[in-house]
Fold this sequence. Notes:
Layout: E1 2-6, H1 17-27, E2 32-36, H2 39-48, E3 55-56, E4 59-60, H3 64-88, E5 93-97, E6 104-108, E7 123-129, H4 132-139, E8 143-147, E9 149-152, E10 158-161, H5 163-173, E11 178-183, E12 201-203, H6 204-210, H7 218-230, E13 235-240, H8 246-251, E14 257-260
Parallel strand pairs: 1-2, 1-11, 2-8, 5-8, 6-9, 7-10, 11-13, 12-14
Antiparallel strand pairs: 3-4, 6-7, 9-10, 13-14
Pathway: Amino-acid biosynthesis
GO biological process, one term: L-arginine biosynthetic process
GO molecular function: acetylglutamate kinase activity; ATP binding
Amino acid sequence: MIVVKFGGHAMQDENGAFAKAIASAQHDGVALVIVHGGGPQIDAALKEEQVTSEFVGGFRVTTPEIFEVVERVLANEVGPAVAKALQKAGVNAVALSGRTSESLIAEPLRQLVDGTPADLGLVGVITAVNPQAIKNALKGGQVPVISPIATDESFKGGLNVNADLAAAAIAGALDAQSLIIMTDVAGIYRSWPDNSSLISEISAKELEEIKGTFAQGMAPKVQACLDAINSGANAVRIIDGTDPSAFAAALANNGGTLVTK
């Protein structure tokens, strides 16, 4: 079982390399679950509606107005589009909303990765994963494509969950062999943007000790690595999803930054 976070500019998949690699892995008998992001698509939708948004510590501050756009873009547009692209490559993919499938249950997130208190609005931190809908899809030979929108603990409202952290929670709940996080950089850097500081392999213990040094978009990815390991995943690999060969290499346990127990 491998959980894949598909996000950032990697989602353009202009040459279909991601879909082909997923099809090849599924053909080889690998059980796969995909959790997608959609930051660029959300940015475009908010711009079109002339709604401004800001990021704090790598998280998008989410007002009720912004949440409505985020949920629509992720669950009704991006998820189905990713599933459709996979289907064209011969993958039996199905789009699932973490909220409507009740797979992801969350509470409001009240602090950043470094522990700083923050009011982020309708941003959630996952408190439970109900894997039933995901497991049913897998049993049916499907590849679930999950939108990182969660239901709140009353099952009445919704929360916007960072896709890296959603993928980590799902990987832990499914006891995944590994979590692959596709992003826009080659891995975790000790001193970004110094390319020579790329970490090829690091233990979760060491990463925990230095996690407070990471800023903005990398902070939730680092936390996702730690969350996934702590909740049951065996390993996490962060790769450059914009490199067509990187995902196939990651499936073969190569490239990027590997975080181990």
